[in-house]
Design a protein that fits this description.
Blueprint (H helix, E strand, L loop, with lengths): L8 H12 L2 E5 L6 H14 L7 E5 L1 H14 L8 E3 L4 H8 L6 E5 L3 H8 L7 E5 L14 H10 L5 E6 L10 H9 L8 H8 L10
Parallel strand pairs: 1-6, 2-4, 2-5, 3-4, 5-6
């Protein structure tokens, strides 16, 4: 049986931030309720008609398959949220995309290249939630990771709202921030390219004996 949701003060901050900022980062630790807060923001957007197109959630496989659907079923204030995972084999994924009742679709990062190629210019998702957004840190305008590169083709062409969710935005240092942030603002804040970012904010150190 689902139960009423009373947001904690920091969850209200997350909800309001996502409502006020169409493209934003939410950096909050594990267990702080990022998922339910984000679903609540989506519920509000769908309820008042500010959003009418479906949402795509990108996440690790287990989180995409179970965590987001379970969280939507857990609370009784979701009237406009129906979560459909896009996981499994190709047939199962294609069938999942045909669910016209779903407002939120979830899939794992490994399916990104397939999803972008399958949907092409018929990309239906006006909102993208990147859960564990550090998976996008490898993005570069040239070369870089294949999954992030595929996502970049639609990120600013077809997507109006974008939220990066993570509790560890820079696990290997601040250099991890550029790839994720590009999906928010195309490098407006941190630099249009990764090399511009590192040249501006980091000093290279050469040790004795290095050329």
């Amino acid at each position: 049986m689902n139960k009423p949701f009373t947001p904690r003060p920091y969850q209200n901050l997350i909800i309001n931030h996502e409502l006020d900022m169409p493209r934003c980062n939410v950096w909050a630790g594990m267990g702080m309720g990022k998922t339910v807060a984000t679903l609540t923001a989506l519920e509000d957007l769908y309820m008042v008609g500010m959003e009418t197109q479906p949402t795509l959630v990108l996440a690790p496989l287990r989180v995409a398959r179970s965590t987001w659907p379970d969280e939507a079923d857990k609370w009784n204030h979701f009237h406009n949220i129906d979560v459909q995972p896009i996981v499994g084999n190709v047939k199962e994924r294609r069938d999942a995309l045909k669910n016209t009742n779903a407002s939120v679709f979830t899939t794992n990062y490994d399916n990104l290249v397939w999803l972008v190629e399958t949907l092409g210019d018929k990309w239906p998702f006006a909102t993208v939630i990147a859960d564990e957004s550090t998976r996008l840190k490898s993005f570069r305008l040239r070369k870089g990771g294949k999954r992030a590169a595929a996502l970049a083709k639609v990120a600013h062409k077809h997507v109006r709202r974008w939220v990066n969710l993570t509790g560890t935005p820079s696990p290997n240092g601040l250099v991890d921030l550029w790839g994720q942030s590009w999906f928010i603002d195309q490098g407006e804040r941190l630099g249009r390219t990764y090399s511009a970012f590192t040249s501006r904010w980091f000093n290279s150190i050469r040790f004795p004996g290095q050329s």
